[in-house]
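pinging the channel bc i need a second pair of eyes. not urgent but kinda urgent?? the chain im working w is below, pasted from the shared doc
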Amino acid sequence: MGAPRQRAVLADLLAARGAVVSVDRLAQDLWCGTPPAKATASLHAYVSNLRRLLEPERPPRAPAAVLVTSPPATPCTCRRTRWTRGASRHA
């Protein structure tokens, strides 16, 4: 599942049980309250990598079904039911 912070993003999203998790909350959790200047870019990369791992058949730029981004503040949410069904393929 990738680097420790990428796994921490997934853990945060799963712990939210489908609720929206803001970029600010993820940054605070991952960097213990003191996120670096480029935290948002790092979070986008972690979510992108997780999408590729969890939905390998999804074409580039196609809407995600597992980790969904909602405008305007780009929070992320995890649809656990869909992820759970495909988890055995990625274990």
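so The chain has four helices and two strands. and The mean pLDDT is 79. — does that match what u expected or am i reading it wrong
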